[in-house]
Design a protein that fits this description.
The strands form five sheets. A six-stranded mixed β-sheet has the order 9-8-7-10-11-14. Strands 3, 4, 6, 15 and 17 form a five-stranded antiparallel β-sheet that branches. Helices cover about 20% and strands about 35% of the residues. By secondary structure, it is an alpha+beta fold. The chain has helices at about 95-100, 105-110, 140-145, 155-165, 195-205, 235-240, 250-255, 265-275; strands at about 5-10, 15-20, 20-25, 35-45, 60-65, 70-80, 85-90, 120-125, 130-135, 180-185, 210-215, 220, 225, 245, 275-285, 290-300, 305-310, 315-320. The model is unreliable at about 1-35 (pLDDT under 50). The termini are close together. It has two domains: about 5-80 and about 275-320, Immunoglobulin-like (Sandwich); about 85-275, Rossmann fold. The longest helix has 12 residues, at about 265-275. It contains eight helices and 18 strands.
């Protein structure tokens, strides 16, 4: 059972609740077998003075200060070496042609990650269907971008987002794997029974990040053509799960007779993922004393800083845990 640890990013006055994940004994490179040690694990973004991604960092580039000795070590690895990438595609009639044009650009994104990565495609309108389960078969994934439109149907966007998160349950648990949903939609939800908050909470618990690509509809407003506002919670899927939100075009570009090209957005997603690392803390048994314990991690290289949970960048971030006594580990 996942147990929640209160994590406070004191430097930026952020208070969130993060699930405990677990280190796993291993008999191969995938690090998948059995649970034996608590590991608090989450993605961070790292950049240099020019705002560029920093590659090649190792645990030796980190300085851990833990006066109370509530951690027994660090876990640190690049965040894009192994990616499980799910494309969630809106089948609305107005989007079918645009999405089908993006299959090569979308799959080019997937092909730039490690050979142990996998891709899946889910399509949705009033209901959701998994067109291609997680696979390394690019032709199968490519074919899933071609589909019949679903005109005059209601759209259950958040139900589809929830199903996207649940789809990752079929994969083995691998601590080094980033789990990503690229959601492409017009942002309108007219049918879902699932609330945005419940999807966000499930995504946070299972360490799934949403990258939301908004292909907007337009409407007249105040005498001009404007982007139709998406359903509340659409942008937050990205902003609160560690991903990013992208709005494609504006009213002016909507009237231009040219083909949509999402290549720059997929490139931006790639660069964002490659700027991320996984930072983890092995939590000691002595930390379970119902007291607050503060520790910090500093980037040693000059000019290198990092961000946690989408908050501001800094060379040093401080963390706090508060665990009740008697917490039992999994067998």
């Amino acid at each position: 059972m996942l147990r929640c640890i209160a994590l406070a990013l004191l430097l930026v006055c952020l208070h969130v609740t993060a699930p405990v994940t677990f280190a796993q004994q291993t008999s191969d490179d995938d690090e998948v077998v059995r649970v034996n040690t608590d590991l608090l694990l989450f993605p961070i973004r790292i950049r240099d003075k020019k705002g560029q991604a920093v590659s090649g960092l190792t645990e030796q580039d980190l300085l851990l200060k833990d006066q109370d000795q509530v951690t027994t070590g660090l876990y640190f690895s690049p965040g894009a070496d192994r990616v499980a990438l799910l494309f969630a595609l809106d089948q609305s009639g107005s989007l079918r042609e645009i999405i089908s044009q993006q299959q090569e650009a979308a799959l080019a994104l997937f092909s730039r990650f490690g050979e142990r990565s996998s891709v899946a495609v889910l399509r949705f309108s009033d209901t959701s269907s998994l067109a291609v389960p997680f696979t390394k078969d690019l032709p199968a994934a490519r074919d899933a971008f071609n589909f019949y439109a679903a005109p005059n149907q209601r759209t259950a966007l958040f139900d589809a987002a929830a199903k996207s998160v649940k789809t990752f349950d079929d994969l083995p648990r691998v601590r080094t794997e980033r789990r990503i949903v690229v959601l492409i939609s017009d942002g309108l939800d007219t049918r879902s029974r699932t609330s945005p908050d419940s999807v966000i909470n499930a995504a946070l618990e299972k360490r799934v990040s949403f990258y939301v690509i908004h292909l907007p509809l337009f409407e007249p407003r105040d005498g001009r053509l404007s982007v139709r506002r998406p359903t509340k919670g659409f942008k937050e899927l990205a902003e609160k799960t560690g991903g990013k939100y992208f709005l494609v075009g504006d009213a002016k570009s909507a009237l231009a007779p040219k083909q949509n090209d999402l290549t720059p957005i997929f490139q931006a997603i790639e660069e964002d993922l490659k700027s991320q690392y996984l930072l983890g803390f092995y939590i000691s048994e002595s930390s379970r004393d119902n007291r607050k314990h503060v520790f910090s991690v500093t980037m040693k290289p000059d000019g290198v800083e990092y961000s946690v949970g989408g908050k501001r960048y800094s060379r040093t971030q401080k963390f706090m845990i508060n665990l009740p006594p008697g917490t039992k580990q999994l067998p």
